C-alpha cells in the first residue's frame, strides 16, 4: 500500500541554463533533504514522520546572498513552463487571467516523490519532459534527453487533466517588499504563443505577473501571495481580502475551543451595510455619468420578466414584482452581478458562450442566452466551490436574514443554537453574510475578557501571523472544494514559505510550525491532501523544529555539506544561529564588536606604554564605562583584567572582595547605630 506522501527532493541546474536565471547558483544538484532515493521505498521512517501523516517539512538556510531566492525562482520558472504546456495542451482556458508565457533557455530539473513514486519535471529550453515512475513523456520540441520519452500531444484533454491532477499545486507566501518585483525579471526570455505560433518576445517579467493575476479557478498549478502590481503590495486590499478568511477561522477556533492567535479569542463580529461600495462595482452611480445605470433602471429590469436580470432571479427560485425600498434591491443586484461575473470569468463555464455581459442585464434575453444562462446557473447550484461561495452567502441571506438590513452582529445572524450545527470551516464560510456588508472583527484578550478590541488594533506581527495562516488555509480549502471530474483537482500541495518570520516576535517564530500543524489537523486538511512544506528562513526558532536531514544549507551559491553540523532539531538556539546561518563574526552586533576591539587595542597600547591617538575616544573613564555596560560576564571580566593592568587598578576579583568588605563594614555601623538590631 502506498503511503500518500509528497516530498520535493532535488533541484538540478544544467550547464546550458541561462546565467540570468542561475545568478549565484552553480551547475549542480541541490538536495532539499538527505533521503536515500535508491532505497526509498524501504525507508519506513517517513511513515512515522514527526510532523504527522501526509506532512513533510524542510528548510533552506544561509546568509543573505547565498542563493536561497535564486533556488526558489528556478522552481517557479519550472512550474511556469509546466503550466504553459498543460494549458496549451488542454481545453482549459484562463478567461480572466493573464496569458502564460514560455520561458526559454531554462535547463533545470525538479525531482519529487508522490505516493512513493519518483517523478521529475525536466525543462530543456522549449521542451518539457515528465517522468512519473516508469512513464516518460514530453511536451513541445523533441530534445536529445527525451530519447526514450513519448510525445504527449496525442493525448486527449481528459488524459492531461488526469495527469496534471496527479502532480502538485504550489502556494507561495512572501511578504518581503524586495522580492518578486517584475522589473527584476525583465531580462528573462519569455514569449507568448498561440498554439505553436509565436506572438513575439515579452520581457519585463510578464511571466511573473501571470502568476499573480490569476482568476483561473486553480488551473495554473502555482499562486504567489500576496498579490503585487509591478512589485507593489496593496496592504489595504490585502487586509480587506483577508478579513472574511480570518473571520471563518476565528469562528471555527472558538467553536473548537482553541485560540487561532495565542492570547486572543473571538468576541463577536459586527456587520454594517456598505451598499454604495458594491453599487460602484456594478457601475451604478447616483450621479449622472455616461456609462451609469440608474438604480431605478435596475429595479425595473428585475421585475421585467423578459430581462436578463429577471431570468437570473427566477432561476434561483425568486419571483419579484416590486421592491419596498432601495436597500431591498441590493441583495438581488449582487446575485445578478456575481452570477454573470462567475459565468464569464472561470474556465469551467466557458461552454456557455451566449451568457450576456454584466452591462446587458437590463436588456431582453434571447433564447440562446436563456439556454446558456440557465444551464450555467444550474451548474452553479449543483457544485459548491470557492468560485460560487459569495453566491451561496447571498442566497442564504435572502432566504433567511433579509430583515437584517443596516447593521447586526454575528450572534444575530447565526444564533448560538445554529452554531452547534456547524460542520467544517467550509460550512462556516457559506453561512457568513455576503460581501455587501462590512465586518468589524472584535477580539478578547484572554487575561482581560471585559472589553473587546478591534482586529485592527493588533500589532503588525500579530496581524501578519493570522494573515499568513489565513492565506494558506484559504487556498488549500479552495483547492479541496473542486470536485468536478472534468476539472484539475490537485491533492498534493507544495507550500513555500519564504521568510515567513517577517514581523514575527521570536515567540511567534518558536510557535509557528506547531500552530500550523495544529490548525491543519483541526481543519482535517491532511484527510484529503498531502503536503510538502518548504520554509526559507533566517529564524533559529523555526529551524529548531526541523531535523538536519530536511535542511538545504547554502553558502555562496553552493550546497554546504552538513557533516559535523549539530542537528538543529530541539538544539540550542545559539548553536543553530552559528552553524546554520554561518555567523563567522559571532553573535555580537557588529558595532558593539568594533567598539570592544577598539577598546582592547587602546588598553594594549597603554599597557605597552605606547601613545594612544589623540583622535581616540578612549580614556580612563570612557573605557571603564564601556566595560561596565558589557553584558557578557566572561568578556566583561577579561576587559576589566586589561583595564587593571593598564591603569594599575586592583584586579576584578579584588574589587569584588573590597566591595563585599565595604558592605559588611557599613552594615556593622548601621547595626551599632540601631542598638545592635539588624
TrEMBL record:
Pfam families: AAA_15. Residues 57-542 form the Endonuclease GajA/Old nuclease/RecF-like AAA domain. It comes from the Bacteria. PANTHER family: ATP/GTP PHOSPHATASE, ATP_GTP PHOSPHATASE. This is AAA domain-containing protein, putative AbiEii toxin, Type IV TA system. It comes from Pedobacter insulae.
